């Protein structure tokens, strides 16, 4: 009885046939238990004759194909002729050792798995005598398949599978990697194992691998992911694109020549070119996927992709013109080229997707997650070095100029990251924010690992997508504030806590101690996870056993050791930071603000995300009777609800900050992501929420791209009034430098510039003047008011006859009496204070804000009352 069939595709392999069959029939299998089917694709070296010589002495058959050589078609022909229900595919060139056959086929013969893969890229697997470029190409081929295929070696040519699985392979399947076709066609129902093998380079004959095979592989990979990508569509799209580039460049040049401005010029030229492109792409480039008439749904998708590409290219254009100083008429061409890929891939996957062999919903979500996350990361890379610092970032940059073990209002991690970034990349926006970008990537990585442990790979990819586009993750991945390292450390701590408390891994306690300690160095808020961990241990009997073992206590000791710089700084500064944070909680002014807390959460998660989070925490019942499923859901509940309850309690008597709860929702994101992909047993509300995610994601991406473009280049027709009070400090600093220069010329004395806020004005002016005139800048603590770290950096100012220039974001900041707990009368401290004046700050010739100032002849010193 034939237990399995070995299908061997051949093309000019005559020198290997005898050795291959000799070694196969020498294995510890009954000769009649398997058959070997050679499928020849038109060999000219006598390969068919070599096979025929074996047909009379062993269970060997030959199939000669007369069609165009194609590896997938050859294998499918062999499968169709097989006499058994288990198929093994291997190469004829002896790169797949016949002695590895039992390890590959037995898992399928035993019924434990549907597919067994001889893998080079699992522990124990290897390649021998391969040149470096072949190894690199193979690795890349497997790597690019990983997002949609859940195996390490998707390009392996040595595997076993149940024969009926081949019936699901598409009739359009072509190329040399049939394993990928097999795995994708049966994605949702396969039991797959990877068996380590040693892959040997051939000793006889020549490799059939060519560039066309590699191109066909990439094309087929994209098609399996749901895209319409062929050489024909790519060629036609390129031709249309060249016409669009020509139109784009001509209109842009015409607009620039008429002083329309960079933003308006590139908007207008893009829309003209995009209209032409859509017409030709829908009628010609993607004509197989167009109905022949205008479809508003399809046209809306085209506009969405086009708008996102436009907003991305605005950043590229600004980078080229304002940073690299390339003339606009030349910069427009690389800017167009940089966004052509967005237009093409957006058209291939979203506007004109493939309707043949439509991938599963899960696969479409994977593809969407990959594309969106890559686009978001591109936006960050392009814009975060162009957008000006907000005052908070400038203040933390000031931390890095006064490096210390800790600081008054925050632990030191943000300062350390800024110091490292600016030391390498310089004192610019890119250098300040590079730490935020890296922290965002760390947070994505740990959230992916957490979600994969709790659910599966598809859920993990959707969780990263949510983190990339929801407000809870967007700001922390761009702005260099303490929340950036906090989010990263929070995600890492959750991951290690799940590995320790749910998976029971002892080594995870080490990671948890490190992550928890680094998190406390980022922001004290991370201590809420310690409270949640204690609650989980109390509730869960299995986790409670850890209390009798040393690992949690060693982790706590390690975290305390890492946190020791903050303790040492506080010890030397009268516990100032701890007292400051305690006063926030123990304030005497009570204000019920629960409604504000809820509004903040809705904004951070979006309304759809907020409802989804509530459903994820309280409406999802235990899906199975397995204890592990219950404990995983309990983990998500406890590590979300317990920290939130603390914030809820505080909001009953104090006003919460907008961003305080942002990291709390990391624990529930995997469950929200899991719900997005469910199709069975959904309530009506859950179905509506699931359907609402697509427009929510689009709106979030568009809002992020819109704001990025707005703060860097502006948006034609939208006035500069959205960020006037706290933004555009580069232009403001230039105006303040001019005022200071005028005062110095009039008095012959160097003025003291005083920012009349706790730290915002002074820090922003410091950053945007540090490389030029280096003004003598102080904060309002000069007048005896609170000034955060400025009270440590510039604790006092003796009376002086140097001119004083007070700077405020609003007129009331410079009024006679400072309102507040101290009731300070600033005018009594000044010599001959002048009238409050203002100047209009312009950006590219457009008014964007006012800055208020008052000039005095000197400073008398701090007085009370």
Query: What is the average per-residue confidence, as pLDDT, rounded to a whole number?
Result: 86
Shape: globular
Main sheet strand line-up: 3-2-1-4-7-5-8
Q: Taking Cα atoms only, what radius of gyration do you get, to the nearest Å? A: 33 Å
Structural class by helix and strand composition? alpha/beta
Strand content: 5-15%
Would you identify the regions where 5 or more consecutive residues have pLDDT less than 50? 289-294
| Domains (count) | 4
If helices are DSSP runs of H or I spanning 4 or more residues, what is the number of helices? 30
Folded structure, characterized:
The protein is of the alpha/beta class. It has four domains: 221 residues, Spore Coat Polysaccharide Biosynthesis Protein SpsA, Chain A (Alpha-Beta Complex); 128 residues, no CATH class; 330 residues, no CATH class; 131 residues. The chain contains 30 helices and 16 strands. The N and C termini lie far apart (104 Å).
């Amino acid at each position: 009885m034939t237990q399995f069939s070995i299908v061997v595709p051949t093309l000019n392999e005559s020198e290997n046939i005898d050795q291959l069959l000799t070694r196969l029939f020498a294995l510890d299998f009954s000769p009649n238990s398997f058959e070997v089917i050679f499928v020849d694709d038109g060999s000219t070296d006598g390969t068919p004759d070599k096979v025929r010589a074996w047909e009379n002495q062993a269970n060997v058959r030959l199939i000669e194909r007369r069609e165009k050589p194609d590896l997938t078609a050859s294998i499918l022909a062999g499968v169709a002729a097989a006499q058994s229900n288990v198929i093994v595919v291997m190469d004829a060139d002896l790169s797949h050792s016949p002695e590895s056959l039992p390890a590959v086929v037995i898992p399928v013969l035993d019924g434990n798995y549907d597919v067994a893969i001889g893998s080079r890229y699992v522990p124990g697997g290897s390649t021998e005598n391969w040149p470096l470029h072949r190894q690199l190409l193979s690795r890349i081929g497997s790597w690019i398949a990983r997002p949609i295929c859940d195996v390490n070696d998707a390009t392996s040519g040595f595997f076993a599978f149940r024969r009926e699985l081949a019936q699901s392979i598409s009739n359009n399947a072509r190329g040399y990697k049939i394993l990928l076709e097999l795995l994708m066609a049966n994605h949702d129902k396969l039991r797959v194992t990877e068996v380590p093998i040693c892959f040997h380079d051939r000793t006889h004959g020549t490799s059939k691998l060519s560039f066309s095979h590699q191109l066909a592989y990439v094309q087929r990979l994209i098609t399996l992911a749901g895209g319409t990508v062929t050489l024909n569509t790519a060629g036609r799209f390129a031709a249309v694109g060249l016409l669009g580039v020509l139109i784009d460049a001509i209109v842009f040049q015409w607009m620039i020549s008429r002083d329309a401005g960079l933003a308006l010029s590139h908007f207008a030229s893009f829309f003209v070119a995009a209209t032409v492109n859509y017409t030709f792409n829908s009628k010609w480039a993607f004509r197989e996927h167009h109905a022949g008439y205008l479809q508003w749904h399809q046209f809306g998708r085209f506009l969405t992709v086009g708008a996102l590409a436009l907003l991305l290219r605005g950043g590229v254009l600004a980078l080229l013109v304002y940073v690299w100083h390339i003339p606009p008429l030349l910069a427009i061409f690389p800017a167009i080229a940089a966004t052509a890929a967005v237009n093409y891939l957006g058209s291939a996957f979203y506007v004109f997707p493939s309707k043949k062999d439509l991938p599963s919903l899960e696969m479409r979500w994977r593809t969407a997650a990959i594309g969106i996350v890559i686009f978001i990361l591109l936006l960050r890379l392009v814009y975060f070095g162009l957008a000006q610092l907000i005052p908070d970032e400038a203040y933390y940059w000031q931390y890095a100029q006064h490096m210390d073990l800790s600081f008054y209002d925050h632990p030191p991690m943000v300062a350390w990251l800024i110091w490292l970034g600016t030391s390498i990349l310089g004192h610019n926006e890119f250098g300040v924010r590079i730490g935020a970008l890296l922290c965002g990537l760390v947070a994505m990585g740990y959230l992916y690992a957490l979600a994969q442990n709790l659910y599966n790979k598809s859920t993990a990819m959707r969780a990263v997508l949510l983190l990339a586009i929801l407000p809870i993750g967007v700001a922390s991945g761009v702005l260099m504030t303490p929340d950036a390292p906090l989010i990263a450390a929070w995600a890492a701590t959750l991951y290690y806590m799940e590995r320790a408390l749910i998976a029971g891994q002892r080594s995870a306690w080490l990671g948890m101690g490190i992550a928890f300690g680094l998190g406390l160095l980022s922001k004290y808020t991370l201590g809420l996870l310690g409270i949640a961990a204690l609650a989980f241990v109390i509730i869960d009997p299995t986790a409670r056993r850890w209390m009798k073992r040393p690992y949690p206590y060693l982790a706590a000791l390690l975290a305390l050791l890492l946190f020791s710089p903050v303790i040492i700084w506080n010890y030397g500064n009268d516990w100032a930071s701890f007292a400051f944070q305690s006063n926030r909680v123990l304030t005497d002014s009570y204000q019920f603000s629960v409604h504000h807390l809820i509004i903040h959460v809705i904004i951070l998660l979006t309304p759809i995300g907020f409802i989804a989070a509530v459903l994820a925490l309280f409406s999802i019942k235990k899906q199975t009777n397995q204890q592990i499923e219950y404990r995983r859901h309990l983990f998500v509940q406890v590590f979300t609800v317990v920290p939130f309850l603390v914030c809820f309690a505080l909001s009953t008597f104090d006003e919460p900050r907008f961003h305080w709860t942002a990291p709390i929702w990391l624990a529930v994101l995997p469950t929200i992501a899991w719900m997005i992909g469910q199709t069975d047993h959904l309530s009506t509300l859950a179905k509506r929420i699931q359907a609402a995610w697509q427009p929510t994601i689009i709106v979030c991406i568009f809002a992020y791209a819109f704001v990025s473009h707005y703060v860097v280049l502006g948006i034609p027709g939208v006035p500069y009034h959205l960020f006037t009070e706290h933004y555009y400090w580069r232009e403001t600093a230039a105006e303040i430098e001019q005022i200071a220069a005028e005062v110095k010329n009039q008095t012959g004395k160097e003025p003291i510039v005083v920012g009349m806020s706790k730290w915002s004005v002074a820090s922003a002016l410091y950053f945007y003047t540090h490389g030029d005139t280096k003004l003598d800048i102080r904060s309002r603590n000069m007048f005896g008011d609170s000034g955060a770290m400025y009270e440590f950096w510039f604790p006092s100012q003796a009376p002086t006859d140097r001119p004083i220039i007070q700077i405020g974001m609003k007129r009331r900041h410079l009024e006679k009496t400072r309102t507040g707990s101290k009731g300070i009368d600033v005018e009594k401290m000044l010599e001959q204070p002048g009238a409050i004046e203002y100047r209009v700050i312009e950006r590219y010739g457009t008014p964007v804000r006012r800055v208020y100032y008052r000039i005095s002849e000197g400073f008398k010193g701090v007085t009370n009352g």
